[in-house]
Write a structure and sequence with these properties.
single chain, 384 residues, alpha/beta, 12 helices, 11 strands, globular
Amino acid sequence: MKRIVLFLFLILLFLPLKSQNNDKKMYEVTKNMPTFYNKIKQQLTYPMAWGNAAEKNFDRWRIEARSVLMDCMQNLPPAPDAYTQEVVATQKRSDYEARKISFNVSSWSRISAYLLVPEGKGPFPAIVMLHDHGAHFTIGKEKMVRPFDVSPEVLADADDWAVKCYEGQYTGDYFAAHGYVVLVIDALFWGERGQKEGADYNGQQALASNLLQMGTSWGSVITMDDVRSVDFLATLPEVNPNKIGSLGFSMGAYRSWMLSAATDRIKASASVCWMNTTDSLMTLSNNQNKGGSAYSMIVPGIRRYMDYPHVASIACPKPSLFFNGTRDKLFPVAGVQSAYNTMHQVWSSQKADDRLVTKFWDEKHFFNKEMQKETLLFFDKWLK
C-alpha cells in the first residue's frame, strides 16, 4: 500500500513539470520569417551600390551594375528572330486607333497586346504601359486599355478594375488621347497568358517555384518580356525610338523602374506606388513577407549586391518619377523616404537631381486622376 501511495505521489509531483515542458513550445519561424531574419539583413551591405562599389566612374559603374543585374536573371527565353506583328482587330476611338495585335515576345512565346496609335503624322513618342498585380489574374493588359471584341464578363471585369485602382480612367487610353503610342502586354500568368486550369492565387507560387527549380525565375521572365516589348515597339514606324517611356502602378511600377534600369531604350520612366528598401519590407508586419505576389518581383541573388533603390539608380541620369501614398499600407513611408533619399544622392552626384521626381500623396495604394495628369505632364516635358 505504501508503494502505491509513493507512486501516486511521484506522479503528482512530476505532472506540473511535464505540463510546463509541453507549454514551452520550440519554434524558429514566426509570421513566415526565420527568427534570425534581422541577422540576415545585417549581412546585406550592397557592395555594388553606387558609392559602395570599387568602380568610381559612374558610366562604367552603370555598365557593371547592369551586368550584375542581368547575371542574376539566368536561363531566360531568347530574343525572337523576328517580331512578326499581326493586327488582329481595330477600333476607332477619339483621336486615336486601338489595335489588338500579336507578336513574338521571345523565340518561345507569341503573345497578344494592345497598341494605341494617335491620329496624325508620326512618328510619335510612346509609352510602354505595365499593368499591376492586384492578386487579380483574369485580366492584365485590360487593366490599362479598355478592351474591345471581348465578352461582357471581361469588359465588366476591366471596368471594375479601372474604378478600383485608377479612379475609373484607363491610363493607356488617357495617354493615347494626348498623343502617345501606347503598348500593353500581359505579364506571364495574367489575361491571355494565364493558367489553363483557371486563375488561382496559389498557382503563382507553384509557377515561381517551378521556374526557380529550372534555373530561372518568374520575376526575371517578366522583366525580359518587358525589355523585348520595348525592342519591338522601337521597330514600329509610328514610334520615335528615341522617345519611349515606361509607366506602371503597383507591380507595374516595379516593372517600370526595373525596365528603365535594364535597357536604355527607355528614355524616361514613371513608377507609382512601388519603391522601398529591403530593411523596411522584410519585417514581421509587412505584406511582402507573405510571399504570393512577391514572387513576380524577385530576382534571385540580387540583394547580395544591390537594394531596390540601387537597382533603380542604374537608370540615372534618365528622367524618373516616383509617387507613393502616405496611406499606402503595402509600403512603409519610412522605407519609401529612405529609398528616395538614396536615389536623390545618386542623381545629385551626376548633377541630374532635377530629373528625379519623388513625391508623397495623401493617398492609399491608388493611382488617381490627378496623379495621372501630373505623370502625363512629366512625360510631356521629357518626351515631347
